[in-house]
Design a protein that fits this description.
Strand content: 25-35%
Largest sheet: 7 strands, antiparallel
Shape: globular
Order of helices and strands: EEEEEEEEEEHEHEH
């Protein structure tokens, strides 16, 4: 999947790796489960596709229990319908309006709404307001490794601009491919699994060039 900046966001077994990618060690010995307090300004943040992702907690820092990201997106942004084979995904909307595909229905959510997406559920979304900000959670912990692997570290907490992101080299992509199958956190739909019910809205020019495309 490519956003307007030409950055590829692929299924788990297709994803490239950034030069600073560190393969996560999910062994019990390496994970921690200590109390902590972090501010958004102090955690790793990345630009990826057309969005800003701040990694608040990872599987490594929560003993594998969950991962949480603070995500800011522009109007028209959102991934095509997909499935997380082993992760239950949640969204808490801090700002904005988003249309969600959940299975075979499309529902609207606004600031203050909580969205629950069990593992293997066909889902996708598109931002309807000028921007939207969500807390994006996964249980058990996962998916944050893909953001840090593919994303470009930010210089400040804002949406990416043209030229902000660094494309992965072939060597980087091949290195990531060799190690990514075990992540198994996301894949696109097979023909018999359903349709992307928001495709027309996402592909349409909704006030800008933003949008995610397969």
């Amino acid at each position: 999947m490519c956003g307007r900046l030409g950055i590829s966001l692929l299924a788990a077994d297709e994803r490239p790796r950034s030069p600073n990618f560190k393969e996560p060690d999910m062994s019990e010995a390496e994970m921690t489960n200590e109390p902590f307090i972090l501010r958004r300004e102090d955690v790793p943040s990345f630009w990826l596709v057309d969005s800003l992702w701040s990694v608040l907690a990872t599987a490594d820092t929560t003993g594998g229990a969950l991962s949480i990201m603070d995500q800011v997106m522009p109007k028209g942004s959102g991934p095509p319908a997909h499935i997380h084979p082993r992760l239950h995904e949640y969204f808490y909307l801090l700002e904005g309006d988003i249309s969600y595909q959940l299975g075979d229905q499309v529902l609207s959510a606004s600031a203050g709404a909580f969205v629950s997406v069990p593992a293997t559920t066909v889902h996708g979304f598109v931002v309807r307001s000028e921007t939207a900000r969500v807390l994006n959670l996964y249980t058990p912990g996962g998916f944050t490794e893909q953001i840090s692997a593919l994303g470009t570290p930010t210089t400040d907490l804002r949406l990416p601009r043209e030229g902000d992101q660094v494309a992965a080299t072939n060597d980087t992509e091949n290195a990531y491919l060799r190690h990514s199958a075990e992540l198994n956190t996301q894949r696109w739909l097979k023909p018999d699994e359903g349709k992307d019910l928001l495709a027309a809205q996402r592909a349409a020019p909704i006030g800008s060039e933003s949008g995610w495309h397969v």
